[in-house]
Design brief:
By secondary structure, the protein is mainly beta. The protein has no helices and eleven strands. Strands 2, 4, 5, 6, 9, 10 and 11 form a seven-stranded mixed β-sheet that branches. The protein starts with a strand and ends with a strand.
Length: 115
């Protein structure tokens, strides 16, 4: 199983980024998908979740109204659209696939919000 994140980078405050997580080696449509982030010196926190069918989402209070999680089960990919980015959004962002038995993590992609 592989989860490969992409789309991170350096962006100015107020800017936008779109992260992607491409999955392989698993039946993607049966897994709930989440995005987590971890800033230096802080615990990893979940920022968004989407159910296996894409019919329900959940967001951390800190990103509600700014971030949108979506998925394309035909492309085995989950996305995180991040708008109105703030310096406190700076972190390594990870995607996670959660099944009934197993959980898989990607390697992470760095997002830095700075002027």
């Amino acid at each position: 199983v592989q989860l490969v994140e992409s789309g991170g980078g350096l962006v100015q405050p107020g800017g936008s980024l779109r992260l992607s997580c491409a999955a392989s080696g698993l039946t993607f449509s049966t897994y709930a998908m989440s995005w987590f982030r971890q800033a230096p010196g802080k615990e990893r926190e979940r920022v968004a979740l989407i159910t296996s069918g894409g019919d329900s989402t959940n967001y951390a209070d800190s990103v509600k109204g700014r971030f949108t999680i979506s998925r394309d089960n035909d492309k085995n990919t989950v996305y995180l659209q991040m708008n109105s980015l703030k310096p406190e959004d700076t972190a390594v962002y990870y995607c996670r696939a959660s099944g009934y038995v197993r959980t898989y993590w990607g390697q992470g992609t760095q997002v830095t919000v700075s002027s």
